[in-house]
Amino acid sequence: MNTISINTLVRENILKLKPYISFRDHNEFNDPTFLDANESPFGKWNRYPDSTQRKLKTRLSELKNLSPGQIAIGNGSDELIDLIIKIFCEPKKDSILMMNPSFAMYGFYATINENRVLQLNLDENFDIVKDDFLKIVQKESIKVFFLCSPNNPTGNSTEDIEFYLQNFNGIVVVDEAYIEFSGKKSSLELLAKYPNLIVLQTFSKAWGIAGARVGVAYASEEIIQLINTVKAPYNVNALSQELILNALEDENKLKENVRDIVAEREWLRDQFKGIACIGKIFPTDANFFLIRLKDVDNVYVQMLEQEILTSRRDPAIPGCIRINIGNRQENEKLVTLLKNI
Ligand code: PMP
């Protein structure tokens, strides 16, 4: 159990704010006449979306066995990362900590908010060195630690997440954007034990709905209330809310998609064996591979010539590219090219 008081971590100006309350969204009506929001009376999408995303939260709370008050929905998890930094990190004063290498958006939003971005360098297997973590959190005034598991772009998961929760007096954000592909346990079950934990998930990866831009934060009701306070009232549009609600009707589809992508990942892993230009394939729990190439410049250019787009990580991760799992046709195109280099 961690007894951190969340209020002491929050920026003072944020603590003073009250959440935006739409009267319409916070009351029940039988046959309302809506003349309160300067909308058009015409059309199917003429109304503002539900600012509380009530239906979506109710459904997610059933699926995850949490209360609706423990759920915040964002315009992608990107928005939630931004809001978390804004809530806890005083510009020009506080720092965030992120793994290196990891997902760039943590640093992006922290920099925009004028916070220092401290890097926790991963070891040669892309694991956190616990001693390095202890040293840096003892020395620096860090408000938020972004722990990405499985990590983008390395693909591996972090074990023993409780260690980081127990040894840090700030907010730990466990970004589980790729958790469905990992077969590993989510950190959601740790929420009951750690008031300083925020778990991020998204509909952009395993759910296959990146176009809708919907991400979810799960945390204590206290933290969720803060996110609700700073978010734009209508941050998740009505089409996306409806789309996601429909998708949630069929969880089997998610399981099928995950199963197919994981099977395709293993097929690709097999195909990569023995390909001359590949130096190393790093272990992955996600829907992508980080691969070290013997001549990254050459391979990258040849891929581009065939309009195969991958994510170049060199020089930050020397010689490496990140390739995500496509469908069989796309994967075959990639393999054929790599075999011919
Ligand atoms: N976290 C990680 C680790 C990611 O890789 C991504 C997307 N690349 C995101 C968050 C953002 O996802 P969303 O589409 O929900 O904004």
UniProtKB/TrEMBL annotation:
Query: Which superkingdom, per the lineage?
Result: Bacteria
Recorded coiled-coil stretches = none
Q: Which Gene Ontology BP annotations are present? A: L-histidine biosynthetic process
Which PROSITE patterns has this protein been placed in?
AA_TRANSFER_CLASS_2
Pathway recorded for this protein: Amino-acid biosynthesis; L-histidine biosynthesis; L-histidine from 5-phospho-alpha-D-ribose 1-diphosphate: step 7/9; Lipid metabolism
Q: Which residues carry this modification: N6-(pyridoxal phosphate)lysine?
A: 205
Q: Which reaction does it catalyse?
A: L-histidinol phosphate + 2-oxoglutarate = 3-(imidazol-4-yl)-2-oxopropyl phosphate + L-glutamate
Q: Which GO terms describe its molecular function?
A: histidinol-phosphate transaminase activity; pyridoxal phosphate binding
Under which EC number(s) is this enzyme classified?
2.6.1.9
State whether keyword Lipid biosynthesis applies: no
User: Is the keyword Transferase in the record?
Assistant: yes
UniProt domain Aminotransferase class I/classII large: residue ranges: 40-336
Q: Name one Pfam family in it.
A: Aminotran_1_2
Give the keywords, sorted: Amino-acid biosynthesis, Aminotransferase, Histidine biosynthesis, Pyridoxal phosphate, Transferase
Main EC class the enzyme belongs to: transferase
Q: Which cofactor does it need?
A: pyridoxal 5'-phosphate
How does this polypeptide assemble, per the annotation? Homodimer.
Q: Which family does it belong to?
A: Belongs to the class-II pyridoxal-phosphate-dependent aminotransferase family. Histidinol-phosphate aminotransferase subfamily.
Q: Which HAMAP family match?
A: HisC_aminotrans_2
Q: What is this protein called?
A: Histidinol-phosphate aminotransferase
> Which organism is the protein's source?
Chryseobacterium nakagawai
Lineage, uppermost ranks: Bacteria, Pseudomonadati, Bacteroidota, Flavobacteriia, Flavobacteriales
